[in-house]
Amino acid sequence: MLPLILAQSTSGSGASSALSNLISIIVYLAGAFFCWKIYEKCGVENAWFAWIPILGTYANFQAGDEENPLLWTILLFVPCINIVAIVKLIIAWVTICRKLEKSPWLLLLMPCFSVLILGYLAYG
């Protein structure tokens, strides 16, 4: 996701573009850090996978106790089938919330407040 954010062109000045890139990097690092802590709490063996985008998805499926995390990670990149894999990813997040004894309803706020929700799941 980070390369997509950084590759977007803006019509602003160089300073605003640099600031936007810096904020994007900070948000990515904060999200990866919180995911790392969540995966450690869930007992994922390689929680450091959170720092690497595709491996982070694999670790997410592991933390959510999905039966075949490698298969579901690969299926996320197959057109049309990825819809089913996204549903499995949401189910994995619900399982993670239940493991951490948090309400799965928090996931509804993820599109707008993802870093805050991840921070709450990691340390709340």
Automatic annotation (TrEMBL):
Superkingdom of this protein's organism: Bacteria
Pfam families: DUF5684
Stretches that traverse the bilayer: 20-39, 46-64, 70-93, 105-123
Keyword list, A-Z: Membrane, Transmembrane, Transmembrane helix
UniProt-recorded name of the protein: Uncharacterized protein
Upper taxonomic lineage: Bacteria, Bacillati, Cyanobacteriota, Cyanophyceae, Oscillatoriophycideae
